[in-house]
User: Fold this.
Amino acid sequence: MVDEIEMNRPTWVEINLESIKNNFEAIKNLTPTGRVICVVKADAYGLGAKEIARELEKHSAFAFAVASMEEALELREGGIKNPILVLGYVDTRNLEVAAVNDIRITLFDKDFIKRLKEYKLDTPLYIHLKVDTGMHRLGVDPNEVMSIFEELSSFRNVFIEGIYTHFSSADSSKEYTEFQIKKFNTLLNGLQNRKLKPPLVHAANSATILNFREAYYDALRPGILLYGVSPNINLALPNDFSKAVSLKTRIIKVSHYKKGEAISYGRTYITDGDKTIATVPIGYADGVPRNLSNTGYVLVKGQFARIVGTITMDMLMIDVTGFPYIHPGNEVVIFGSQGDKAITLEEFSQRALTIPYEILTRLNKRIKRVYLKK
Ligand SMILES: *Cc1c(COP(=O)(O)O)cnc(C)c1O
Assistant:
């Protein structure tokens, strides 16, 4: 581990850029257009937006999508040149900043058109119109779309470059997703007939990429799939995808206790015999859910070891009784693989009663991100 010398607290997220690149290529190969809008919002799901976008740009990612102007500008500061789409809210005071930085904004509310009048620059401002086909979060009603195109046609420097929608249940409901696709297609046909259809139609998040080839349109819009993580534990990934993220730490103390000793806050675990207990420097402040206290497990020396006692803010304890040659410095895998065993992020998240998205985005910034190039 190259960076380990600088690592005082030996807790790190390992991010395999080679796997991310391969996953990206696998996604790209699925689409005839080769266009992939890589979703790197929330600092690329906590993994480092600049680093990941740089890697994907090298391999000709078509564009990037983020949640806010701040996230978009961070990518520009990091040297990212490709188009960036902001999926969420942009304040009208930022329209000029968006245009001069080649950042596309999303129009998701008809009332916003009034405010677009504040945009006065000669530089064209490109927008993507978001249509609500059933997610009911952001987006204009399909019935409003024609009038939006009409109104916007009078703007000198504002152009509709794209139109998109978002599926709420592509990982879980065929019927509902097909209903959303149909709604979107009806709208697209209407636009096509009036020669209004914008050049970029997109809809497919990771679950849609896996389940609904008929909704690929002009560009795919994956996030979690880039990291080799399935959007739903019941949905297996094709073989050409590989895991790109693991969470690791090292034992900092090994203790031996007799029967009847209480471990950690609140004495929720009492040793039921002679036990070897190891302390590892990762806790709920790092993003390990506290509800894994006494129920989660980790990998040490290629074996599963139970988390015992209540998980604390910065540390947790594991039962390594009977493990050979345990000592401070031994690697502990929270999720990822070790030897021939693995704890997948999907399993880990399910055990914690949540989803991989939440686990990844909540990994604290104090955990070092280590990028592997192979
Ligand atoms: C987050 C997001 C995506 C990517 O979702 P994944 O499930 O990670 O692929 C795509 N589109 C929109 C609008 C999003 O908010």
User: Anything to note?
Assistant: The longest strand covers residues 158-165. Residues 39, 41, 87, 166, 205-207, 221-225, 231 surround pyridoxal-5'-phosphate (CB under 6 Å). The chain has eleven helices and 20 strands.
